[in-house]
Amino acid sequence: MKRLRPDELEYFNHPDRFTFGYFRAETLDPLPEAAALGIADEELLNYYDNRYHNDARFVLRLDPNDGHYADLEAWVADAAYRIVGERIGDSEAFRKVAKEFTVFRIDSVNALHLYPEVQKIQLLKKIALDLRMQPAVIDENACLFSVGSSIFTMELFTRLVESGRLEGFAKRLFRTDAELARLSRRPMLLYSLWDHQTVAMEAWQRSGGKGILEMATATGKTMVGLAAAEKLFGLYGSLRVLVLAHSRALLDQWRREAIDKLGFVGDSNGSYKHPLSYDGKFVIEFETLQKVYRNPGAYATDLLIVDEVHHGAGLQFRKALEVPCRWKMGLSATVEGAERGQVLDRHLGRTVYTFTLKEAREKGVVPDFNLYVHKTFLDIAEDVEFREISEHIKRLLNYINANHQRFIQILSGYKFSRFESLGDFVKLMRGSRYSENEVPEEWQKLVGLIYKRRLIIHRSSPKMERAVDLIKQLGNQKKCVVFSMDIATCERIYRAVKDSVPAYRVHSGLHPDDVKRVLADFRNCTTGVLIAPKMLDEGIDVPDAEIGINVASARTKLQLVQRMGRILRNRPDKKPVFHHFVALPRNFVAAEDSFSYMNDLAWIQDIALKLGIALELYDPENSEIVELEKQSEEAVRSYYRARDCIVTDDFGTIHIKKIVDSIRGEAHEELIALLGARSGAITDEQWLHLLRQAYGNESTINVSSLRWLLIISGRDPQTLRSLLLMGKQDVQTSPPPTRPLDMPKIGIPEQTPDTADGRVAELVAALK
């Protein structure tokens, strides 16, 4: 006779404890609403997983009969509205669409339950783009909340209601499983081409699908290559692509970009050695010049793309350019030397399009402005509650790390026994719903607290006082554009400055005619400030200005900074200026805030290097922030020592070896030499200067994540030098296996995204 599990015995003895009323009274009502919403969300996701997968390992806290989960769903919808749904209107307006929201959420979970988290996000973005809708809302919320959670769905739902696209979005999402599966797998260009990229594509097409595109660094060469591949596949229904480059790091980057930009199914942290494939009809392979030159005939393809093509002109590797193909594209920032040009012309075709750094700067594609970074604190309205939540999280995390090490080992597949970051805890908690082990009560409480805290941060902006002072200082002398977090912050800044400077504001809460009038007035003024929430993401045509001030979320994308370059007007005597605020909470939780803060600083340094712009700290002497920054760096180093990698939201998984490998040979050697002569801690400014020296003061340096090297080394030049001396990977030069010209189809590689959904099998196996 089968033995009953503890939860089953509990149900038979006390069925009243498995009702929604009991769950609400005992678990939800004692907590702050946002924390309770986080726990209710987790329980609903458990219920849906149990229903869809029919898996007896799921332990439900409510009786799945008698409508208890329907009551919980209604409670979640109401709570989500009170927290983030105010844009729909007053409570009466929400009541009219509350049922519609609940249906939308349930149907969304139903439609997406088969897919891992990364694929869910890509699928939603494909649908958004099909409706000519910017997918920013999906990217922004997916960083913090699970797809299908109430907050994520409410944010998406309200945006769809606002734009009048709810019905169209629902029709595309709520289709048959087979239709949705085809859409999820089908590659699609997930970003719009810029004008110069479109011109480059057209020039290459006019040349018969061959030729070289000379485009300055950071102007989107990779995007043009991927767009060409996607267009050819759309025309012919079948396409094989081979991407050649001189370094493995560059090929890994190409593979990541293909997954991100085209929505291919694949692990973005995977090696270039794993091709990407859509049902064998659209295949992208990646290989080094050093391997292909030995037997180019074995690599026949339809479209050949050669990146950093000038490397292929050397005597040793030019034979790699003889790969049999129908179309060929060479990409390079510049091709110099007559002999080199002749070799490339002969194998790939002449240069059909040139886009210089000067042109890129003139068009604002590569901005030419001085970037000032302001480090400040978040402006959190619920400050007392936020402080209490932060302290409670610290205590609970310490308790779990001290008392639940064995349980952590089991759920992590014996990878670690303590949590160095709350991001790891959240991912493991999601995976716990696939476990036979009942999650301790302390874990449930911690989920609720993290949920509540992240939501407060998500809705917060940097401290306004410094931004307002800056606006008042500059608004009577220059034309300024200010990016705010939301409409409420926009209005708050407007009220604070309108009596001191000529002030204008635009947002979606104003009538379209008023927006046009305000923009026209700002266009015609000589000084003043225009304030708007995320207006560039909404497609508003912004007049020129001389100063940009960003007080929106610090996780601003590269695209926004590049578009700022189009807005900021260059004058003969002075560069324009962009002020960027990077904020952190004063009530700091090292296991959470360290990683997001380091992400933000690493991202802004990457921007400065990639675009070749000057970067300065506006106020480097804030002792409180300096101390929190030291804590952040030590938390990151501690995490790295325990994991030998760093898992981040913005950069993916950071492996120091991969960063070292991405540094160009000459620059790598020069950097080692420069560090050998140094002593004392290296500041961010000194690190930027060293990198630019190592790269021969090039205008742009297209290498990501270099600041992480500085942090992992503890800013010590000799430790940093030792990391670099780990050496770059030796490129494989053994002869490739012979492969016939009619290459067999390549199946989709196994997907292993770094999400809880993608680790289900691993967790289950570990628990068994």
UniProtKB/TrEMBL annotation:
Residues 202-340 form the Helicase ATP-binding domain. SUPFAM superfamilies: P-loop containing nucleoside triphosphate hydrolases (SSF52540). The keyword Nucleotide-binding applies. It comes from the Archaea. Keywords: ATP-binding, Helicase, Hydrolase, Nucleotide-binding. Residues 466-621 form the Helicase C-terminal domain. PANTHER family: GENERAL TRANSCRIPTION AND DNA REPAIR FACTOR IIH HELICASE SUBUNIT XPB, RAD25/XP-B DNA REPAIR HELICASE. Gene3D superfamilies: P-loop containing nucleotide triphosphate hydrolases (3.40.50.300). Pfam families: Helicase_C, ResIII. Residues 731-753 are annotated as: Disordered. Signal peptide: none annotated. The keyword GTP-binding does not apply. It comes from Methanoculleus marisnigri. GO terms for molecular function: ATP binding; catalytic activity, acting on DNA; DNA binding; helicase activity; hydrolase activity. This is Type III restriction protein res subunit.
